[in-house]
Design a protein that fits this description.
Elements lengths: L3 E2 L10 H12 L10 H21 L5 E5 L2 H21 L7 E5 L5 H12 L5 E5 L9 H7 L3 E7 L11 H10 L5 E5 L18 E5 L10 E5 L25 H16 L6 H18 L4 E2 L10 E5 L5 H10 L2 E2 L1 E2 L12 H5 L4 H4 L3 E4 L6 H20 L19 E7 L2 E8 L4 E5 L6 H11 L2 E6 L5 H13 L13 E2 L5 E6 L2 E6 L3 E5 L3 H8 L8 E4 L8 E2 H5 L9 E2 L1 H10 L4 E4 L3 H6 L9 E4 L9 H5 L6 E4 L4 H12 L5 E4 L2 H4 L9 E2 L2
Parallel strand pairs: 1-11, 3-4, 3-5, 5-6, 16-17, 21-22, 24-28, 25-26, 25-27, 26-29, 27-28
Antiparallel strand pairs: 2-8, 7-8, 9-10, 10-13, 12-13, 14-15, 15-16, 18-19, 19-20, 20-21, 22-23
Helix pairs in contact: 1-7, 2-7, 3-4, 8-12, 13-14
This protein binds pyridoxal-5'-phosphate (PLP).
């Protein structure tokens, strides 16, 4: 299965002509452009040619254009230059304004550089965010109020998360009307090759660019500085780049960038705006078909055609990422995610997008080199992802009939969000279930899952009472239209599965499913063991409602106070030999069912792989712990979930729990043995 790369705002592949140009620069034109002999002169001629082309394409006019390592350096240099000039002006008794104003959706390189140089230069100016409207564009009213007191203004041409295009003409007009003296930097990283730029005709003082966002390699960039705008070099040394940026130039990078600029210039390599728009229309149609309820987080008429940012109700960005990744479609989350908690995207938060959308956003970005076949293949896979979700009952807005993926199984399933876990107990024989500690945020998910599989809900119980817990309980009952639930009898028992017992512990309750599982809420394991004492066995699995990443515990491990430690790792290259040497080993894929379903091809073919999603791991540990010497090899997409699974088993006393280092992402078909999935 070939990867479909739709994360071009993060970085792009390198244009074949750029690879060839870099390679030629390294193999033949390897001279130092500062050398005065023929080899050096040839190198300098190549560099001068690229600069001349860049100047023409960017409309640099009389301005300066220097090569550097990329936009982060360009931003640094621009900020340093402006701030040094501001300090000089202030020292000379001029009024400079008190604010360093930057757009609320700027790349982090901007506010971080402003704060850094403001501190280092002892300027003590005030950093202030310029808000954006719900369309992601700068709030010109606020800009109008603040511009008179602004020393430096930083805005971007187009946003990297949403593709929103700034209204630079309106900003320029406002600056002109107010006679503003502020230095103005415009981060043009996402605009190169996508928006027409004619820099010298504008009021822009500094414009950083980055090669790797437009098919040149990483480590090469450019900075435009308007003629007459102040400049202070960031790097001093041998005086290269006419003293603007010392250090021997990255000639391979410059050659490659030259090839990209030549392709831009020839007008036939990259797709036209109209073509890119039609690609977006097709992708959006497939997304809408696959993901009912999808909401787009950017205004289509004011955004680059190459960026689509969206959220899907009831699905976290991590789940969507895992799903797309399994289907071989590389996208990115619009937000930074950690295992336990998804941090909302500050860009979407600034656009006042509701919190759930800001923390579950996905960015899909293609580039002007992306071809129609890639877009069509992406659409097909996206639609397949939708089927996978429907099949595993994970789309709240769709209640599909029983699917083989989500076939009724006895089990204990953990649904976690923001450090809290809801436990779902299912009993296949009676097609019924019990929900323990439902969380409001998970109600649509739980309701979809239960409704989709036609389970009868026997009880919704809480280990602790609180207004929030009660409200979530009511929400779930309402979502499932439950009018009556079974009561626990006088002994605190409910006839469900192996028998569900409620045991009081102070104000809290705990629930025992047979003697196999104890749901201990937020109690510490030791306290729960002390309270439940003879009702437990050493191998009883303890399931907490607080998600600290440890999955679950057992009475034995809790009593021994087993410390967490990483399980040993296996490299993909060594997996086949390992399995040959240990034929009784069990390979466990801890990815969720919808990820399997989304896979266009099977990763393993020929040897048995057990599918136990991480969410169902607690239900399986007891069985594995009965054979503590039998090797278990956990695999997943990137190695995170398998690391958690293996560490859990390791901590609980399993002697041979391994994880596949780097996950399936690091493994290629060539490095993986032939394995087959067990149903
Ligand atoms: N500005 C924007 C808008 C970006 O998207 C990026 C890259 O993510 C940068 C700046 C930093 O660019 P570079 O990777 O060249 O340092």
């Amino acid at each position: 299965m070939k990867d479909i790369y739709l994360d071009c705002n993060a970085t792009t592949s390198v244009l074949p002509a750029a690879v060839a140009a870099a390679s030629a620069a390294m193999a033949h034109g390897y001279g130092n452009p500062s050398s005065t002999h023929a080899t050096g002169l040839q190198a300098k001629a190549m560099m001068d040619g690229v600069r001349a082309l860049a100047r023409r394409l960017l409309g640099a006019g009389e301005g300066r254009l220097m090569f550097n390592s990329g936009a982060t350096e360009g931003i640094q240099t621009a900020v340093l230059s402006a701030l040094c000039a501001l300090r000089e002006r202030r020292d000379a008794g001029h009024r400079i304004g008190a604010l360093l104003l930057y757009g609320a959706t700027e790349h982090k390189a901007v506010p971080e550089s402003l704060a850094h140089w403001n501190r280092l230069l002892g300027l003590n100016l005030t950093l202030r965010q310029l808000p954006v409207g719900t369309d992601g564009r700068h709030d010109l009213d606020v800009l109008g109020e603040l511009i008179g007191d602004t020393a430096m203004l930083c805005t971007m041409a187009a946003n990297n998360e949403t593709g929103v295009i700034s209204d630079l003409s309106a900003i320029a007009q406002l600056l002109q009307e107010r006679g503003a003296h502020a230095y103005w930097m415009v981060d043009c990283v996402q605009a190169l090759g996508k928006l027409q730029l004619n820099l010298a005709a504008t009021r822009i003082d500094y414009a950083p660019f980055s090669g790797h966002k437009l098919y040149a390699p990483k480590g090469i960039g450019m900075l435009y500085v308007r003629a007459g705008a102040p400049f202070t070099p960031l790097i001093m040394g041998g005086g290269q780049e006419t003293g603007l940026r010392s250090g021997t130039e990255n000639m391979a990078g410059i050659a490659a960038l030259g090839a990209v600029l030549a392709a831009l210039d020839d007008g036939s390599t990259f797709r036209s705006h109209a073509e890119l728009l039609s690609f977006r229309t097709r992708l959006v149609a497939s997304l809408e078909a696959a993901l009912p309820g999808i909401v787009f987080n950017m205004p289509f008429d004011r955004s680059l055609p190459t960026t689509v940012n969206f959220s899907v109700p009831g699905l976290s960005s991590k789940e969507l990422l895992d799903l797309f990744d399994a289907a071989g479609v590389r996208v990115s989350s619009g937000s930074a995610c950690s295992a336990a908690k998804a941090l909302p995207s500050y860009v979407l938060a600034a656009m006042q997008v509701p919190a759930w959308r800001a923390s579950s956003a996905i960015r899909l970005s293609f580039g002007p080199l992306t071809d129609e076949a890639t877009i069509l293949a992406a659409c097909e896979r996206i639609e397949h992802c939708g089927e996978a979700l429907r099949g595993s009952c994970l789309l709240p807005s769709i209640l599909s009939p029983l699917s083989p993926l989500a076939a009724l199984r006895d089990g204990v399933t953990a649904l976690s969000v923001d450090g809290h876990t809801t436990w779902l107990l299912t009993d296949a024989a009676s097609a019924s279930c019990v929900v323990i500690d439902p969380l409001a945020a998970l109600v649509p998910r739980i309701a979809a899952f239960i409704g989709c599989q036609d389970y009868t809900v026997r009880a919704i119980v809480q280990t602790e009472t609180s207004p929030q817990a009660d409200a979530a309980h009511q929400m779930l009952a309402a979502a499932l239209e439950i009018t009556q639930l079974d009561e626990f009898d006088a002994h605190g028992t409910l006839a469900f599965g192996a028998g569900l017992r409620r045991l009081a512990c102070g104000d809290a309750s705990m629930y025992l499913l047979g003697q196999e599982f104890a749901f201990i809420g937020t109690l510490a394991p030791q306290a729960a063991i002390a309270a439940l004492a003879e009702a437990l066995r050493l191998d009883t699995v303890l399931c907490a409602s607080r998600d600290d990443g440890s999955v679950c515990n057992t009475v034995r491990a809790a009593q021994q106070q087993a410390a967490a430690s990483a399980a040993p790792q296996l490299d993909a290259a060594g997996l086949e030999a390992f399995l040959r040497a240990q034929p009784d080993a069990i390979v466990v894929d801890v990815r969720e069912a919808y990820e399997h379903a989304a896979c266009a091809t099977r990763v393993f073919d020929g040897c048995t792989v057990h599918s136990v999603p991480l969410s169902r791991l607690a239900g399986e540990v007891a069985g594995w712990l009965r054979e503590p010497q039998r090797p278990l090899v956990f695999v997943c997409r990137s190695g995170n979930r398998s690391a958690r699974a293996a560490a859990c088993l390791h901590r609980l006393g399993h002697k041979a729990a391994w994880q596949l280092n780097g996950g399936l992402a690091m493994a290629t078909l060539a490095t993986l043995p032939s394995l087959a999935f067990a149903a």
